[in-house]
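fyi for ur records
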Amino acid sequence: MPPLTPPDSRPLTGIALASVGYCLFAIQDAAVKWLVASYEVPQILFLRSVVILVVGMAIAWRQGQPPIWQSRNKWALTSRGLLLLVAWLSFYNASRYLGLADLTTMYFGAPVMAVVLSILILKEKVSVARWLAVIAGFFGVIVAADPSGRPDFLPAAMVLFAAFCWAWGTVLIRLINRSESTANQMIATSGLFVLVCGAALPFIWRTPDALGWGLMLGLGLVSGIAQYLLYEGYRYAPASALAPVEYTGLVWAFIYGYLLWQDVPKPHVFAGAALIVAASLGLVWWEARAARLRTA
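which gave:
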């Protein structure tokens, strides 16, 4: 099957799509943080994934995509789905034991891991500008999160493992995007989540109240849109270019934290957020400049 779009053809489009996607993922994280206090993570992921599965099937039907079982990427789709499932389960279970600062700092090592993996696996050529953006963004996360104390080893290991799985998964998105539709990727990942998490429901199910149902189903819709935008972003831009954009999720997390829980960011948070935004905007400027030079 030929590539659906030329790789690296429109990096600015990819950055824009991924930026909106990470904004929506931050909404998802806020909703899950609210829900995890009352419900088990597999139940939340199950209901979320059912909605995403329906959305993905509707998109595939509208676009006339071939059935998922005819895909040539079955093993890659399954591997990526398992990586993301492990990442979600590890991160949200660790959130029960670690503070937000420690969680955020360790998890946002994922973009750096994604850049390294994109070099090793995808053979991407990472420019100095992209490396600087990744490093500046990661330093901004450390400044903003201001981690203190030494976290428990096991939860900390779970977060780092989640970051690695997420980084590997984003690289696989880029690899699969060369020959697989976004809708089928959504179907494969969400279908796997439904099967695995559904097997645990008889042991953990708790019937949600009206607010719980609304949050879980709304969570699925927001997550589905976020996934679609992110997968499309990786179709247009290399993983190394989108890695720094992931740091903007931290800025959104602080914004939603204030709106939902009245958490007022401290000065170091604003300093770190400024570094993160500067890294992302600097990357956008660099990609725009490179695009102009290519077409000159």
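Confidence is low (pLDDT under 50) at residues 1-7. thats all i got for now
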